[in-house]
Every structure is written in C-alpha cells, then in structure tokens.
Amino acid sequence: MDRTTIDFGIDLGTTNSVISVMNGGEIETIKNGNFEITPSVVYFDKRGVKRVGVSANEMLNRPATATDVQFEFKRVMGQRVEREFKSAGKKFSPEQLSAEVLSELRRAAAARSGSEPVAAVITVPAMFELPQNEATAHAAKLAGFEHSQLLQEPVAAAVAYGFQTNAEKAYWLVYDFGGGTFDASIIAIRDGQLRVIKHAGDNYLGGGDLDWKLVDQCIVPRLSKSFALATLARGLKARDIDNGRMLVLRRHAEQIKKMLSKDETVEYFEENVFVDDDGTQVDIECTITREEFERLAAPAVERSISIVHRLISESGVPKASLDRFLLVGGSTFIPLVRRHTAAIGIPIGMEIDPMTVVSRGAAVFASSQRLPSSRLRPTAVAAGAAVAQLEYESVAKEISPYVGGKIEIDGKAPAAGAKVALQRDDSGWVSGDVAIDPKGMFFTTVQIREQGQSVFALTVRDASGQLVPCTPNSLAITYGLSIASAPLPAGCGIGLADGSAMILIPGGTRLPCPAVVYPAQFVRGLHKGTDEKLRIPVLSGDEPMAEHNLVGTYININGKDISRDIPAGTDVQIEISIDASGVPQIHAFIPLLDETFKPSERIETLFEKPEVMRERVEAIRVRLEEVENLADEADLFALSSEASELASSAVFDEIESRLERWDDGDTDSAGSARNLIVDMAKRASVLAEKVELPTAQAQYKETLDATRKIAA
Ligand code: ADP
Ligand code: MG
C-alpha cells in the first residue's frame, strides 16, 4: 500500500540525528547500519571522499584527520558562514552540512524500506528563529525531500509521551539537555490538543561543554606532568591551540563522561593517542571520580535548573499544576542531572529513550500529516481503474471517525451497483460493502485502534463484484493528540529609519500567520540606473529597538533594477506571512513602480562585528549607570542596588571573553555573545522602565507611531 501520510520523523540534532517511521500503528526507530543514532558529523578525506555519521565521528580519533571533521554546525544554522575541509579544499554552509546528515538518514530509511522517503517531519529547537527555520527547510530540499514540515523538538517529545497517555488536560515540562544546547518548554494538553506555552533555554549549554571541562581541567593538567604539550595549555588564544590533538582528547573525555554515568570511578587508559611536542607517544592514563566530574559539571547543571525555575515562574503555570517532567537528550543520563531534576519535585518521565524520543514523536506527528495532494494524485491511471478523492481527518479523538469520498472510473461515477470496502491493517475490523451513489459518493464510519495509527485498505468493486484497481488504495488515521498550531518563537518585522523596530508579527503568534501588511515611506529617494540602493532590514526578534533584534536579511532595491526614480517619501508596503513550519514569506511592494521586491538573499543571521558589539555593551553599562543615578534621586534604593549589581555582573566578563573569541573569527562565540548582550540589554530596559517616569515611555511610543519611515 502506498503511504498517504508523511510517516517519517527526523530529529536533526546538534550532536546526533535519528530517523523514525510510523508503520501501521508501530513506531520504529530506523537503524543506520548497526546504530539507531547517527552523529551529526561530516568528514572529507584529502581525495574529497565523504563520510557522514558514525564513520565520520571515528575520524576524530586521530589528530591528522580530526581537523577535517565538521560537527555542531547546527549551532551556526542560518548564518552566512562556511565550514572548511582543508585537506579536500572544500567549503560548506551549515545547511549543506545538515543536508548531508539528512540524506544519510534518508538512505538509511531507503535501505530499510526499499525506497527513499519523499517527505519528512524535521524537528527544530523551540528557540529557532526565522532564519534557522528557513535554513532547515532548505537543507531538507537539498537532501532530496520534496516536502518537509518543521516541528518543535519539545512538542515532538511530548507527542511521543502523549501517544502513550490518555491525559485530557495536563501541563508538562520538557527538559532537553543535549550535546550542544539546553531547552526547556512548558506544554499544555487540552482536549486532545497540544501546544508550547512558553520556552526558555541556552543555545550554548550542552554536554559538549562538559567534555571540554574534563579536557581542560582534568586531562590536560594530568598529561602535562609527563608530556610536552605546550600547545594544549589552557588560556591560549584559540588560533594557537592545536585543534587536532584537542579534538582527540575531547573524544576520550566524552567516553570518560559517559562511563561516569554508570560508574563511581573510571580508571581510564588508552595507549598511543598521539605524539607530544617532543615526538613521544602519549598514553592517556587517569583516574577520575564521579565526584570530581560533578564539581566540574555543577555550574552547567545548576544553570539549566535555574532556567527551569525562571521558566515556570514566567509561564504563570503553578508548579503544582505541572504533571510531568520529561527528560530528553543524552545529557539527562548524567546522575547529577537526574538528582537536580528530581529535586524540583515534579514527577519525572523517562520511560522513553531520551536519545530517540524526539524522532519518535516526530514520526507520530508525521503519521497524522497527509502527504500534499500533489504526491497522491496518480500521474497516470490505467483505463478502467478507479481514482478516489477521500475526505477524512487524519487525527481522530474518537474511535469511530467518518470517512467519505468520491470514486471515479475513467472520469465518471461508476455504474450503479459499485461498492467500496475498507479493511483495517490488523484485520481487526472490516466495513462490509458500502454503496457508491449515482454521483460516485460514498460515506461510512471506520473503527480505529485506541493507539497510534490505523491504516485501512480501500477496495472498489464494480456492479459485477469484480475488483477494480484504485488509487490511492489506502488511508491512515491516527488516534490521539493533535498539535495545536505552534507559536512563532521570535517576532518578525522591519527596522525603521529612527532606529526602532516595527515588529509586524510578534513572537508567540499562532502559526500559520496570514499576511500582515505595513504601509511605510522611504526617507531617501533613489535614482534610476545608479549604483545606489535602498535597504529595508528584515528583523527577527521582539525588541522595540531595531539593534536589539537579529537582522535576518535585507530587501535591497537597486538603482540599476528600477524602471523610474523613487522620490523621497514614496510609499512602500511591506508584507510578511509565516507558514505552519515557521518559514516566512516577505516582500515589499512599491505602488509607484507597480513592482514587488523580495529579500535579495534567503534570510540569514548576520552577526555584528566585535567592535560594534563592544559599543553595545558600553551603551548598556552607561544606561545602567543612568538608571542607578535616577533611582538614587528618586529614593528607589532597591532598584538602585539592582542596577549597580547588574552593572558589575560577571556576565559582562563572559561577554568579553566570547568577544575575544569572535575577534579570532569564531562565529559560535559571536552568537553566544549576541545572546548574552541582548539578554543584558533587556534586563537593563526592564529596570529602566521601572525607574523612568511612565510619561517618558508614553512619549516614546508616540514618536514611534509618528515615524512610519523605514531605513534607507
Ligand atoms: P543533541 O540534541 O545535541 O543532538 P543528544 O540528545 O543526542 O544531543 O545528546 C548528546 C549528548 O549526550 C552528548 O554530549 C553526549 O556525550 C551525551 N551523552 C550521551 N550518553 C550519555 C551518558 N550515558 N552519560 C552522559 N552523557 C551522555
Ligand atoms: Mg536533541
């Protein structure tokens, strides 16, 4: 039987990726070779031959090949950066690398089922903003998926659990501690519908950080006693560190970390891992206790817990109303994580393997999503064969849903006496003959199983009782939870000439979001035929100041491309809509030219240069000083000390150390520095709002409304 629903679900993880499929009510995690888990890792050797997954990961075992391995590229998804494979002389964007991982999984699925899936549900972090969603959807295309749908990871995890419960009304917390990121989300389940109500997290907190801590604080100090390892010393500038050997050590550190999840003490020994600066073979020989590791891991784990507490208090859901605390991601195997999460006091859910739960939930969701009709419409129908146009809901909350449709043979309703029949795949239920009326219509109810997906075979017989081949010849209905539309993780808007942001679709809006149109005028004009251009910055974020949002891309209007001059003050209409996956469509219409302009490039995350970021940090400090002074003058002592505490926060040192790495060209650090800066800017704004006179705010809002001018 042909599939009528997407059925394939992929967790495209920072560290590991997994593909699962729904087959007649059973979820199967598809093995790639011997493993359910495919590391999100790509390697090219010097001949340009590629390896993806487990075999690419193995190349991290030797310094000579380790530097030709790329991993954690999801962290820079949607950015205009390239990762280089030096020996092969190749460069790839994060989405091209993600596409390699996706096609590896697609081939694994093909090896299992005989044909490559044409469509998949692919999960993305709840925190992914528009540029990252768009890049993920594009990666799916590059990997050969004709159709893909994005689903937020915590929603997928909750669906995997929801699939097994009959909860009518509940709140769940999904705690996802993976290799590269930490995400926490509160999910509401009501009347069979499931949605994220609030999420929080840190894109730069994950199990990988713990590996590096072990390398820096346990392994290198111990090895340095016996070997010459000057280029592995801590505190070196990123460019002076010997990456190959560091990566090898990190592999061993990860090994040790995983062993410590089972054992209290690990006596690790590995011979000849590489040579030291004097050419001596290095053996790793060290004893590490769980206690020692927990001291290193504690700050990261505590940070995740404090994010959870903040999330709960900001969500407005009382802690007592949270029914389950779902553990997701490989780092939740760590005993310290288990203890800290259990101490929160919400019943823990960990029955489903935390490494595969997201892809399993994605497969359940995929089984409720019908393939686009273009995939179902038969391309060529033999003469005399039947074509069915079916009407049914692919997710049902009751066990006897309706199925109806129209049957045509050679473009006409079948002759009187024709019948259809439906039979459930486990043969536990058959419809008996259902009459087709003179217009070709039929209508019945079917019985579905109370778990998962039920697939029904559809047969058509003519008046003489002869079987007539029919396309499609099956349909699938999933019992249980459906997904209420996902909320948009971050707003989408444009930057105006006065430095403010006009957020046209705020974060939290339910998707899909129909087009929102914003009328504006250009401040500057543009002469036809010149090299000049007008630029409209497209923003991702919800901050009132343009600079606190990400610039996703620009809509560029080039003098060379226009048919007549655009005088200053010319009207322009900006239109933004966002589809169910969170992928935006944006354009600017200029009535004067009767022409529409689209972003010149796909939406991408562009980070400011380190010096610009430093200026922002300085501005935040100045702002905090002003707030402190104002608070003092108004005798608001609590607020004044809050401002002075914030101004001397260790976060500023952290930002500076990340900016130093950004100076060295490390784009991961650019992203994390930006997040911290925006976070501090927000906290400063919140304080300022509490201190400054409400009238000042009102005035600001007024000017904002009057300034419908866009940057040019
Ligand atoms: P991601 O979502 O980033 O792809 P995963 O959920 O696959 O990540 O988790 C990968 C992380 O989990 C890695 O840092 C890995 O070292 C860690 N991990 C896996 N198993 C264990 C274990 N038994 N003990 C501790 N950490 C583990
Ligand atoms: Mg994950």
From the helix content, strand content and strand pairing, which structural class follows?
Answer: alpha+beta
Radius of gyration: 28 Å
The distinct bound ligands, ions and cofactors come out as:
adenosine-5'-diphosphate, magnesium ion
Average pLDDT reading: 87
The biggest beta sheet reads: 6 strands, mixed
> Are there runs of 5+ residues with pLDDT below 50, and where?
703-707
Based on CA inertia axes, which overall geometry fits? globular
How is the topology of this model organized?
Layout: E1 8-12, E2 16-23, E3 26-29, E4 38-39, E5 41-44, E6 50-52, H1 54-58, H2 63-66, E7 69-71, E8 83-85, E9 90-92, H3 94-113, E10 119-124, H4 130-142, E11 147-152, H5 153-162, E12 169-177, E13 182-190, E14 193-202, H6 207-226, H7 243-262, E15 265-275, E16 281-289, H8 290-315, E17 322-328, H9 335-343, E18 348-349, H10 357-367, H11 373-376, E19 386-391, E20 395-396, E21 402-409, E22 419-424, E23 434-435, E24 441-445, E25 453-461, E26 467-468, E27 470-471, E28 474-479, E29 482-483, E30 492-495, E31 501-505, E32 513-522, E33 533-540, E34 550-558, E35 571-578, E36 584-590, E37 595-597, H12 610-633, H13 637-647, H14 651-663, H15 667-691, H16 694-706, E38 709-710
Parallel strand pairs: 1-10, 10-11, 12-17, 14-29, 17-18, 19-27, 20-28, 32-38
Antiparallel strand pairs: 1-2, 2-3, 2-4, 5-6, 5-7, 8-9, 12-13, 13-14, 15-16, 19-21, 21-24, 22-23, 22-25, 25-26, 25-28, 30-31, 30-33, 32-35, 33-34, 35-36, 36-37
Helix pairs in contact: 3-4, 5-10, 6-7, 6-8, 8-9, 12-13, 12-14, 12-15, 13-15, 14-15
This protein binds adenosine-5'-diphosphate and magnesium ion.
Adenosine-5'-diphosphate binds at residues 13-16, 178-180, 206-208, 254, 257-258, 261, 329-331, 333-334, 355.
